[in-house]
Write a structure and sequence with these properties.
40% of the residues lie in helices and 18% in strands. By secondary structure, the chain is of the alpha+beta class. It folds into 2 domains: 150 residues, no CATH class; 147 residues, C8orf32 fold, CATH 3.10.620.30. Strand 13 and strand 14 form a beta hairpin. The longest helix has 18 residues. The protein is globular and about 55 Å long. The termini are far apart.
Length: 352
Amino acid sequence: SVIYMYSRILDQYSNDDELPGSVVVLAWSSSNIPINDNLDTFTISQIVSTAGAVKGYVEVYKTLPTLINVAGVYVNQAQFLYLLTTCVSQLNDGITTSIGLISADVAQTPSETMTSGNLTKSEYLDLASRIISFMDSNGVAPNYGSTTLGTIRFESLIYLYSRVAAFYGTNNYLPNYAVMKSWSSIISSSNTSTSTETIPSSLQIYLQATANCESNDASIIALAQSITSGASTSYEKAVLIYNWVRDNLSYSFYYNTQKGAVGTLQSMSANCCDHAHLVVALSRAAGLPARYVHGYCYFTSSGTWYGHVWAEVYAGGWITADATSSRNSLGVVKNWDTSSWTYKGTYAELPF
């Protein structure tokens, strides 16, 4: 427990460049891990973005991640289920306030007896409400949720609400129903997705070559094919492209676009705009919708506010892809404060 405590202290120092004012100490038990020294709050967009990443993870690896990184904070599966169900409930009610993280243990004996079918919107909203009430009262996730299809086990509940939230992230409304299969069939199937990887027509605009995003350039196409060779899903492709850009480009400070995707590939050095151009161009060349997000962000290492641009890639849902720092990963941003930034715009073509 002492080792874990000081590991957390040093991890916070690496993120914030200062030692924490206090740390939480709990008895050494697997049910108490992870320990969150500050019970964080998360925005709807942060939870929705993470839901898309979790959905993609399940469909690639046929299991849930043990810990889930929400905007740089690792939470356990039970905590993420609470965030998901609260997020979906608030979206239905038109509430956009941030959601607080609770202390919660994972389900101890998950079980499931269900038939495949469709869970209607009213049913999954009612189930979400019951899950929230149960966890508020008991501090632990339920082993299963009861529905007209039967009982849905804990892991499948996380996958269900990850899909619902990811759908909202893409379409800006909640689905009328969710397709349900047993968890055993999901993790054993060669294609775990309960929906095809067909790209919605509304996202076709994010597949086209645009100014400074030369996704139709021969060098961009060849590199995209090389990077993603062997990948079988959109999520795998997104991870491979993101990691390549993050690990191979160096960062240069300058304002606005100067190089575009092709020029960035030639120089292997870029600011945030040109980093985003290369991520977006490679993603589009690989058949993945990708777009730009512009914000005003507080960078934790320098303690400075800057205008900033990053990519989002669609792989079952929109996933943040800020490749400007080695501290970041697909869906996770650690070099700037994701809880306090100001949104400026989202673009298919970056206008500056």
